[in-house]
Design goal:
71% helix, mainly alpha, disordered N terminus
């Protein structure tokens, strides 16, 4: 008789072996494997303990798997782990990371005992969901019950504020910072300092963010990226690149996010030399072939008016995706080269890449700049071919294209087809009527938007409605809209609104009223308003007032040739050739450059 042991298949692993396997799998990020192991463990008749279930729940949290999480919750209840703080905390964390805040709070409230980690898990749940009032309420309750918050508590709260767009939460964030100092947590660990700095940067409080940064004894790549990103966000790219130079001297390796920040800074400042330096660094660090980096580099060079470099990167990109094509097409379109944009689009549609809404919106913008109705209609065929006719970005661009090409009826047809109209599409249609002198139609549409549809207007749509009144000579309506803009909706007039007002009064010959209005405007917007008045003086032959406007313009914009050109035209229209000649000589004598005008017309072959 054989004395060999039974086959390996009959071997039953003890719980500690399962726990070791589950721990290793979870720690290495193999979360699906972790859950499969649990299934096998159950089939072998082995039940988990208070070490097993937190690991399993961590796997569910990382997979955002509510079905598996609720199943494990049932096992926890069945096996009697309701009183285990470690397991219950893991449940709170799992539910919060799966965006089920209600279940997370229910588990938290039912816990017989809580640790600081338990409180942190619930605070993190609220902060992750941007429920900052509830997170702060929980922090206060935690302090009242004698639990001392840890740095992790504040990391969660500051990170929550960093995800908010509204600056209305700044005072709350400052109060939490004060609480942090009061508790003596001023010797920041890196993650806490980073989250605090991130909050201030999000609220554009760069002086406060910089104080935190400068006090840090140890700075990680996240620290440098956060502070530099904050400066880029507020437009202080000079300071951002100063910090970058400091970082390089400290031999800190650059990561992908840092490159995105640097490229964004180059886009904002539009300096070709700086863009080339960043590109060289990208190549040196070997990340130039990343898809996200490539299309950002194309965008960066296009913004710096270096289309040659942008195209070189595009042509060298091996596996061009839709982002690469769209970035290059947009580069041409936004740099005043619409024909090249359309040529590249035609090349794209001959490949396997299919245009998306952003691509088609960009190409329609190029058609609008060309004033080419026929090419715009060709693009519309692509829109219907690929089922993007319901994309609001595409619809708005299509409406804009028809408007620029003078096809008001087609623009209105596009507008009427939009089922869920937002403010942008309403503004586009109102502006379409405005630029074609259809003031009454623009006003009727504005009333329908605000009164019938109850859509709140913004500064942009008010620019369009004032432009409509100006182009149609509707003085009373224009004055009424200018007044209601601030009184009814709290919209502060911008230079465009003031310019429309001056143009409105000037066009109908109310020049004295226009002068009074301009003199009551802020000084920084008067130059453009005086220019409108000077144009009106030419229309109405008012030399005396024109000379006053020209003098004001010369004082406010001494380097501009516009006032001299307009005044010369005014003299010419009245047959005052000598005075006109003097004005034109002044342009040459002051070495001012007259901006060339241009126009184009589409000719059918």
């Amino acid at each position: 008789m054989s004395l060999r042991p039974s086959p390996r298949s009959n071997f039953k692993r003890p719980l500690y072996l399962w726990n070791l396997m589950i721990r290793d799998s979870t720690n290495n990020g193999f979360f699906t494997e972790t859950l499969k192991m649990h299934s096998s463990m159950q089939q072998s008749g082995v039940h988990g303990n208070n070490f097993t279930y937190p690991l399993l729940l961590k796997a569910c949290a990382n997979l955002s798997s509510i079905p598996h999480g609720t199943m494990l919750h049932g096992h926890v209840l069945k096996l009697g782990f309701q009183g285990d703080t470690f397991v219950q905390t893991a449940l709170v964390d799992m539910y919060s990371k799966c965006s089920n805040i209600t279940s997370a709070r229910q588990v938290f409230d039912e816990m017989p005992q809580r640790s600081v980690v338990s409180w942190n898990a619930m605070v993190s749940a609220y902060s992750r969901g941007s429920w900052m009032d509830k997170a702060l309420s929980l922090l206060k309750e935690m302090l009242v019950l004698g639990f001392e918050p840890s740095p992790s508590t504040f990391v969660s709260i500051f990170s929550g504020y960093s995800n908010l767009d509204s600056s209305g939460f700044l005072l709350q964030g400052i109060s939490v910072h004060c609480c942090l100092v009061k508790l003596g947590l001023v010797c920041f660990e890196v993650s806490l300092a980073n989250s605090l700095m991130g909050m201030y940067a999000r609220f554009r409080q760069m002086d406060e963010a910089r104080k935190v940064f400068d006090l840090m004894d140890e700075k990680s790549i996240i620290s440098w990226t956060t502070i530099m990103g904050g400066y880029v966000k507020v437009g202080d790219n000079v300071e951002a690149f100063k910090l970058f130079n400091q970082m390089q001297h400290q031999s800190i390796s650059i990561d992908f996010i840092m490159f995105l920040t640097l490229i964004s800074g180059c886009v904002e400042v539009g300096q070709p030399l700086l863009a080339s330096s960043v590109h060289s660094l990208v190549i040196k660090c070997g990340v130039c072939e990343d898809d996200s980096i490539e299309h950002l580099l194309i965008h960066m060079y296009a913004k710096c008016d270096n289309l040659t470099s942008a195209r070189r990167i595009f042509d060298l990109t091996a596996g061009k995706n839709i982002l690469s094509w769209t970035s290059m097409i947009a580069g041409y379109a936004q740099s005043g080269h619409p024909a090249e944009a359309l040529d590249l689009f035609r090349r794209m549609v001959r490949t396997d890449i299919r245009p998306d809404g952003a691509t088609l919106a960009t190409v329609l913008s190029a058609c609008a700049d060309l004033g080419s109705l026929s090419k715009g209609q060709e693009i519309e065929e692509y829109i219907y071919l690929y089922g993007l006719d319901l994309d609001q970005q595409v619809q708005t661009s299509l409406l804009h294209m028809y408007s620029k090409c003078g096809s008001i009826q087609k623009a209105r047809e596009v507008f009427d087809r939009v089922t869920d109209k937002d403010l942008t599409i309403w503004t586009s249609m109102i502006n379409c009527y405005a630029i074609h002198g259809m003031g009454n139609e623009a006003i009727n549409l504005f009333h329908k938007m605000t009164v019938e549809e109850r859509i709140m207007p913004d500064a942009i749509v008010y620019t369009s409605i004032l432009l409509a009144c100006s182009h149609s000579g509707l003085v009373e309506d224009g004055l009424k809209f200018f007044k209601s803009m601030h009184e009814d909706f709290g919209i502060a007039p911008t230079v465009k609104h003031y310019t429309c007002l001056a143009d409105l009064l000037g066009r109908v010959g109310q020049l004295d009223l226009a002068v009074d209005a301009i003199q009551g405007m802020p000084l920084d917007v008067q130059a453009q308003a005086w220019s409108c008045l000077l144009s009106a003086c030419r229309i109405h032959g008012n030399v005396e007032l024109g000379e006053l406007a020209a003098a004001k313009l010369s004082d406010l914009s001494p380097g501009s040739s516009g006032s001299y050109v307009l005044m010369a035209n005014l003299y010419t229209s009245l047959g005052k050739w000598k005075e006109a000649h003097i004005m034109r000589n002044l342009i040459d004598g002051k070495e001012l450059v007259k901006e060339c005008g241009r126009s184009q017309v589409e000719v059918k072959a």
